Amino acid sequence: FFHLYECVMSVQKTRLSYDKSWEHEVENIHHNCLKPVLRQYQKQSVAWMLRQEKRRKEEEDKEGVHPLYCEVRLRDDNILYYNR
């Protein structure tokens, strides 16, 4: 298990090393309403979660349909939304 973890971490570190905005996102995580000071790994986790949500939102905006549904166009040009 530890070997798998090390491999995944290596891939992640390599991928993030090319992304200069990542460091900026991590450092700007703290909010004034948040009393405790986050540790570095906590900041990274929050930044990752925010990126996931942002990416999902961008995909939804691009597609126009929630990821759990697909658009079905009928022959008479009616549109139905099917739950995947």
Topology:
Blueprint (H helix, E strand, L loop, with lengths): L1 H16 L2 H8 L12 H24 L5 E5 L5 E5 L1
Antiparallel strand pairs: 1-2
Helix pairs in contact: 2-3
Query: DSSP strand (E) fraction?
Result: 5-15%
Radius of gyration: 19 Å
Largest sheet: 2 strands, antiparallel
Strands, count? 2
Low-confidence stretches: none
Helix content: 55-70%
- Coarse shape: elongated
Order of helices and strands: HHHEE
Calculate the mean pLDDT score and round it. 80
Number of helices: 3
Strand order of the largest sheet: 1-2
Structural class: mainly alpha
Give the termini distance in whole angstroms.
33 Å
Characterization of this structure:
The chain is mainly alpha-helical. Helix 2 crosses helix 3. It has a domain at 37-84. The two termini are 33 Å apart. The protein has a two-stranded antiparallel ribbon with strand order 1-2. It has helices at residues 2-17, 20-27, 40-63; strands at residues 69-73, 79-83. The radius of gyration is 19 Å and the shape is elongated.
Give a brief outline of the structure.
57% of the residues lie in helices and 12% in strands.
Keywords, please?
84 residues; mainly alpha; 3 helices; 2 strands
